[in-house]
Write a structure and sequence with these properties.
The chain is α+β, with helices and mostly antiparallel strands. The chain contains five helices and six strands; from the N terminus they run ββααβααββαβ. The strands form two sheets. A three-stranded antiparallel β-sheet has the order 2-1-3, sandwiched between helices. α1 packs across α2. The longest helix is centred in the middle third of the chain and has 15 residues. 15% of the residues are buried. The model has no long low-confidence stretch (mean pLDDT 83).
Length: 142
């Protein structure tokens, strides 16, 4: 299933050299509201962007850098990372596409153990397994 992802830039008019590049499948106005709320609530204690928002002000500017139709989170992260690599934003601390994607893939492909029927089930088949075996809980993830 394809969906649209957006790459965006957050900056301040008085200091355009300090900026952040992000990606989202939400509308930009909604995503900016989430950034403002998270900064106000003190989320992301070690988040450089939120520290700058708290010091420079919540009235930052944002611009759409580009949009793309993607089919999965990997493609979404790759699109965002392309913009990060192109613009080199000083407020981005982490890569959008990197080791975390490898860990996500490993998790998605890892087996789970159903202690009811003493079977190992592939994570993508849990629903099918639950419907046929009539039990839902107590999977041991490893």
């Amino acid at each position: 299933m394809e969906y649209k992802t957006n790459a965006y830039k957050i900056f301040w008019v008085d200091d355009p050299e300090k900026f952040y590049v992000g990606g989202t499948k939400q509308t930009l106005s909604r995503r900016m509201s989430v950034h403002r709320d998270d900064a106000r609530k003190g989320k992301g204690k070690k988040n450089i962007l939120y520290d700058v928002i708290r010091t420079k002000g919540y009235n930052f500017e944002y611009r759409l850098l580009g949009s793309k139709m993607v089919t999965c989170r990997d493609e979404e992260r790759q699109f965002e990372q392309e913009w990060i690599d192109h613009l080199h934003p000083p407020l981005n601390k982490n890569r959008a596409h990197g080791l975390d994607v490898v860990k996500d893939r490993q998790r998605e492909n890892s087996p789970v153990y159903c202690k009811y029927c003493d079977n190992t089930v592939h994570r993508s088949n849990i629903r099918k397994h639950n419907k046929t075996k009539k039990h839902i809980k107590n999977f041991i993830m490893y």
